[in-house]
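User: Sorry, what's this?
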Amino acid sequence: MASAELQGKYQKLAQEYSKLRAQNQVLKKGVVDEQANSAALKEQLKMKDQSLRKLQQEMDSLTFRNLQLAKRVELLQDELALSEPRGKKNKKSGESSSQLSQEQKSVFDEDLQKKIEENERLHIQFFEADEQHKHVEAELRSRLATLETEAAQHQAVVDGLTQKYMETIEKLQNDKAKLEVKSQTLEKEAKECRLRTEECQLQLKNLHEDLSGRLEESLSVINEKVPFNDTRCSQYNALNVPLHNRRHQLKMRDIARQALAFVQDLVTALLNFHTYTEQRIQIFPVDSAIDTISPLNQKFSQYLHENASYVRPLEEGMLHLFESITEDTVTVLETTVKLKTFSEHLTSYICFLRKILPYQLKSLEEECESSLCTSALRARNLELSQDMRRMTAVFEKLQTYVALLSLPSTQPDGLVRTNYSSVLTNVGAALHGFHDVMKDISKHYSQKATIEHELPTATQKLITTNDCILSSVVALTNGAGKMASFFSNNVDCFIASLSYGPQAASRFTSPPAAACMLQYKKRAAAYMKALRKPLPESVPYEEALADRRVLLSSTESREGLAQQVQQSLEKISKLEQEKEHWMLEAQLAKIKLEKENQRIVDKLKSTSSGQLAGLAQESTVVVTTAVQDEAMAKASLEPVQSTGLIGILTRTSDSEVPDAESREDLIKNHYMARVVELTSQLQLADSKSVHFYAECRALSKRLVLAEKSKETLTEEIKVASQNITRLQDELTTTKRSYEDQLSMMSDHLCSMNETLSKQREEIDTLKMSSKGNSKKNKSR
């Protein structure tokens, strides 16, 4: 009973301790929040002090202006007082001078009245702003005092609770010591543990048999059918190629095309807006062609001149994003890497807007301070300054959400997948806000342009520039409205496309995994395309073997063929030289023959027929001179044959010498036959050389093809070896994982056996102690 009461008390104390601990956490959180609020209030107080100092400076400037105006009024009154006696003396000067002085006086009175009214209005505004600032300052100080008192109270409560916790801990430690002392009385319950140990042994035995059977079965299944199961791990599962949804990809590409068109229109409108604003600064309130503009407007114009370097990259980034979305890719946030580039370009444009915003506001203030500015125009300028601030804020908000959407493709842990839909919804809201701001700017600027056109000093250049700015603002408004409605209509499609990914995987684990998945997808598409490609007509097996033998024999005899080609080329060159030589010889012989024929004809005409013997001797000399290089070495009466390059020449005895004409015909026919023979030999040599050249070219092509096939085969062998090593590594990793599991199971079984052995030893000790106690009781 005492132990039950102690346990109940201990549980109550533990519950109270947990409650106090929770309250302590809540109080600490409250104290931290109050400290943050007090810091924010101090910051607000500092800002209010700064605004008060600014108002005081404005008040000082206004008082200085009032003093100047008062001095001017005194001077005007003195001049008026001096002009009155002069007017009395010069009454005879005529009615024209009196009317002129009266008009000047009325003008001065009106100017003075306007300045007095403006001074009074500024005094009222300053007094109201001062009273409002004092009221806000008093409220903030009272709130700060109350928050400080509350923080002190919370701190006191926290100190009391910590003290109470320390006392409770000490009390619990004392109770724990008492419970440890009383736990010795529970040793009697060891008898009941015997039955439990026996039951545990039986359960352990059955469990061991069941686990061993399951282990053998799972190992057999793994070894036979499942070498590597990549669906268990989300990181491996993210590398699996998902099902290709062509309709989804075409729709995303169409959406990207529409977004690109909208961004191009928006970029054009922004370029026109900044350019025409720069032109307007150059002509209003001071025309740069007449007078120099202020340094502020010069700096503002210089910054506006750089707008294209910040606006054009937006179109380029959107174009790159559109080009990255193709029919073959998987379009989700993890794979749209080009969205990061567009986000960076948008960030640079936001920096440009932040840089020109102060100059734009100061330029509008300078227009308000101009003497040409009316009250209505001043009100429109103030509204435009507020609109420009809102426009910059909306662009910053839009850039923040676009940067968040680009995080999954670069930093997967930067944005949780469950927040994708909310970020897309906020992007749509930001676009609608941008449209509203542009509508206000268009409205206020049209009113401002209307007022400026009614001014008497408005030039045609100012009117044209204002119309151009209005057209660019209207184009911006229309583009923002189209973009906002387009995004709102397609936000459901964007949210639905977020679930498009690997099966049984919550997300792509990282951008490298998405890149690997896309690479695997391309390889799978190329493999399927290769499977669908029709096979070329194959060469018959016998013909292929014959071609292989020819190729091998030709490659083996490549050096021999090269030598043969070289020899044939040398022979061809020699034959060409001989051909040229004998053509020259034939020409010389023909010339000599013509000369001799002419001489013979001349002699026949001049001499009589008795001189035929001398003529025959001369013609014989001519024949011998024509063939002197190939003449016979020995002269005999029998016919002798001479073999050479000029063929076979048969000579007869002097008794068988034919007449002159038959001898000339014989020489002519011999030379013609020799020339024909040489030309046929030359043609044969040419044909053989062409044939050898074709064979050499075919052999070189075969050699190049063989080397290419060798390189491809070596690359395929390398890829296959890499695949084999990768599969072996995967197999080893799976084996190691299952071996680790088996070792863990065996360790668990060993630990259970050890616990059982310890329990048995404790039971044995309890038995021995109980036996000793029973013996002592018996002896007593």
About this structure: Confidence is low (pLDDT under 50) at residues 610-658.
